[in-house]
Amino acid sequence: MTRIDKPEKIPSVHRLLNDPNGVELVCEFGAPLVTRSVRTVLAKARAQVLAGTTIEYASLVKALSEKVSHTVTPSLRPVINLTGTVLHTNLGRAALPESAIKAMVDVARGASNLEFDLETGKRGDRHKHAEDLLCYLTGAEAALVVNNNAAAVLLTLSSLAKRKEVPVSRGELIEIGGAFRMPDIMAQAGCKLMEVGTTNRTNGTDFELAIGPRTAFLMKVHASNFEIRGFTKSLSEKALAEIAHRHKLPLVTDLGSGTLIDLENHHLPHETTVAEALRAGADLVTFSGDKLLGGPQAGIVAGRRDLIKKLKRNPLTRAMRPDKLTLAALEAVLSLHTNPSRLAMESPTLRLLMRDYADIAQLAARMAATVQEHCEGFEVIATPVQSQIGSGALPSDSLASVALKITVPGKRRPGKALIKLAKAFRGLPIPVIGRITDDALWFDMRCLEDEGSFIKNLKELTLA
Ligand SMILES: *Cc1c(COP(=O)(O)O)cnc(C)c1O
Hints:
Aspartate Aminotransferase, domain 1, 3 domains, four-stranded antiparallel beta sheet, globular, 15 strands, binds pyridoxal-5'-phosphate, alpha/beta
C-alpha cells in the first residue's frame, strides 16, 4: 500500500503509464489517450492531497482505468423510460418501428440513391423520397422534410414573411420548451409579429384589423403544452382560413405534434390531423416527425405546391436538409400509416399509447414483487397513476396506467434515500428513469415492454 499524503509523493506520469495496468491500457487505447487520462487523474489527486486528503496508489490505478473507459464509452445510450411520459423529449421522443430501424440500417451500410434518379441515371432530388407518401396521407399537393419542426417553422417564416407582418393570436404565442418561443423564431426569421386579440379571447375582427398591406400570411399555432380554460374564444382553422383567403393571404398552421391518423379510432382523445387542418383551409401545415407520428426527428411542411416551391428555393433549406437515415426511417413510418391495423401493432408510439390497462396492471403486479426483492428497506407497491402522452400533444389528456410506487417506510423525510435510490437505478447497465414526487419514487409501467431484460438488468442494482 503506497499512501500519498504529500504533493511530493504523487507519482509521475511515466510511473502510471509503465505500471502493468497502464501498459495494458496503452496497448488497447493508444498512448495519447492514456497519457491525457493520466494527467487528468494526477491533477485531481494533487488537488485532493493539497486539500488534506490521503489517497492510495491503487486508487489512482483504478481511477485511470475508469477515466479511460469513460472516455471511450459512448455517452449516448439506451435507457428504460418509466417516467410515464410516452413521448419524452429528454429521452429521445418516439421509439421507431422495426421496419424503420431496418430501413436505416440498410441505407447506412452502403451507397443509396439519396440524390440519384434511377430512372434517368442523372442527379436526383433528396426531397422527393418521402413526398409522394406524405401527399397521399395528408391530401397535400406537396411536402418538404427538414430536420425538425422548429426548422420547418423558421423556414416557412423566412421564405414567405421576411420583412413582412404575421398576425398571431396572443393566446398562441407559446414557448414549447428547449427555448423554442414563437416570438423569438419570428424575430430570427426577420418577420414582424402582430399580436392579435387578448390572452384568453381572439375573434375574427381582431384578425381583420391586424391585416394590412405588409401582411404575409395569417398564422395559427397549436397551443401544445398548455390550455387556457374559462372565458375563452379562439378561431377555428376554418374561420381563420376564410378571413385569410378573403384577403388573398395564405393561412399557415403550426400543428406541433401533427398526427396523420384519427386517434379516436384507436380509443385515444382526438387530435387535429394534418389532413383535417388542410381540409379546413390551411395552405401550409408544419409538424414534427418524432411526436405522434412516431418517426425520426424531422420537421414536415405540407400544403400548396407554389408555397413549398418558395421554401425549397430558400438557401436555408440546404442548411436544414434531412440526412439519409432520417429519410429512410420516415419513409418506413409513413408507409406503415397506409395500413392502420399494422400501424397500431408495429408503431411503438401508438402501441404504448393504446396499451391496455389490464395488461399494464398485471405487469406492474409482477414487477412490484421483483423490484421489491432488490430494494431492501423500501416498500414497492403497484399503484394506479395517469401517464402522459408528452411532447405537447394533448396536454390535459392523460392515460390510466399503473406504476411501482417506492417509498421508505418509517422515514418522515425520505427525500435523500429516494434520490439515492433513483441514482442507483440510473446507474444500471441500462439506466432506468423514473420520477420522484409525493415522497415516493415512481416507475410507470406503461412503456416497459421488454420484461426479461428489465429483470436481468435489475440484478446489477447496488444499494450502497
Ligand atoms: C414541438 C413543437 C414544435 C417544435 O418541434 P420540434 O420537432 O421539436 O422542433 C413547434 N411548434 C409546436 C406547436 C410544437 O408543439
